[in-house]
Amino acid sequence: MKTPLSLLALLLAIVSPGASVALHAADQPQADSEDSELGDAMSAMNSAFKKLRKQVADPTQNEASLALVAKLRKGCVESTQHVPIKVGRLPAAEQAAAKLAYQDQMKKLIATVDELAATLKAGKNDVAADLLKELHDQEEAGHKEFRAKKK
């Protein structure tokens, strides 16, 4: 009796070392829902930020800019409800302090976003542009402290 070639190929793939690593990785749980939800919130913030950066100096775009600021704020608020992967990987004794530090950082970011909204409503686009730079600096500092390094 002859074994079909595809069955033999499947058997070889299962037995080969590379395939066993792939099969083992498939058995590992994916990132939990909070991690992906945090990533989604951060992604939405990034998208709004990039669009806002292009138009914040233009007073004729203030209405659209305020809508983007609202999306940015929504992403900030959603992000505070999650824990970054890096914090979750810390020893249990360090996690509480790191979670508080993350929450504080996000509260500062929300305060700056609120200030940006008020500045745009007042028509002070030059100040709004400066606040956007401040937001970017806060983003970089937060990512440096709380973002897990990519493997």
What does this structure look like?
The protein is mainly alpha-helical. It has two domains: 1-30, no CATH class; 32-146, Four Helix Bundle (Hemerythrin (Met), subunit A) (Up-down Bundle), CATH 1.20.120.10. It has seven helices and no strands. The protein has helices spanning 5-15, 17-27, 33-55, 62-80, 85-88, 92-121, 125-146. Helix 6 (92-121) packs antiparallel against helix 7 (125-146). The model is unreliable at 5-34 (pLDDT under 50).
Number of domains: 2
Give a count of the beta strands, DSSP E runs of length 2 or more: 0
| Percent of residues in helices | over 70%
- CATH architecture name of the largest domain: Up-down Bundle
Which CATH class of the largest domain?
Answer: Mainly Alpha
**Average residue-wise pLDDT:** 81
The shape, in one word, is elongated
CATH topology of the largest domain: Four Helix Bundle (Hemerythrin (Met), subunit A)
Describe this structure in a few short sentences.
The protein is built from seven helices and no strands. It has 151 residues and is mainly alpha-helical. α3 (33-55) runs antiparallel to α4 and α4 runs antiparallel to α6.
